[in-house]
């Protein structure tokens, strides 16, 4: 027996996205992700659905982190606004760093540091584009700094570069 996906119509898209947000709050990111895919099948450039997809992919467990990371990067590239692309790219990097912090491998701390550094570069660029009264990039920057400090993160020894001979 073959199972086919069923299409949704344009009308219920706002309600579907509300449900996706609800499932995110219930810690059911795969359900939220599925709804986002349903919305994007009908409206491929729906910015709210793309943003929700990025967030739901970031909510998923370490087991699917690599796949979710690549798909989230793709969704970010489809965002129309420069600020949104930068802001959500940093969000993807920060969440990837957190996945590495939860990983029990010796090199995971170095990878986490690298992703936090990437996120901070994006946050720095996003902060310059934020509308007045919005401090999201600064708040996220501070979260990255605190994660680096709390976990005593730093670059991998090989990344230290060669010392100059003087």
Please give a structural write-up.
By secondary structure, this protein is mainly α. It has two domains: 8-80; 81-156. The protein is 66% helix and 0% strand. The chain has seven helices and no strands. The protein has helices spanning 13-25, 29-42, 47-58, 65-77, 82-101, 108-129, 136-150. Helix 1 runs antiparallel to helix 2 (29-42) and helix 2 (29-42) runs antiparallel to helix 3 (47-58). The chain starts with 12 loop residues before the first helix and ends in a 16-residue tail after the last helix. Mean pLDDT is 87; it is low at 160-166.
What descriptive keywords fit this protein?
166 residues; mainly alpha; 66% helix; 0% strand; globular
Compact summary:
The protein folds into two domains: 8-80; 81-156. It contains seven helices and no strands.
Ordered list of secondary-structure elements with their pairings:
Layout: H1 13-25, H2 29-42, H3 47-58, H4 65-77, H5 82-101, H6 108-129, H7 136-150
Helix pairs in contact: 1-2, 1-3, 2-3, 3-4, 3-5, 4-5, 5-6, 6-7
Q: What number of structural domains do the residues give? A: 2
Separation of the first and last Cα atoms: 73 Å
Give the rounded overall mean pLDDT. Answer: 87
Query: Tell me about the biggest sheet?
Result: none
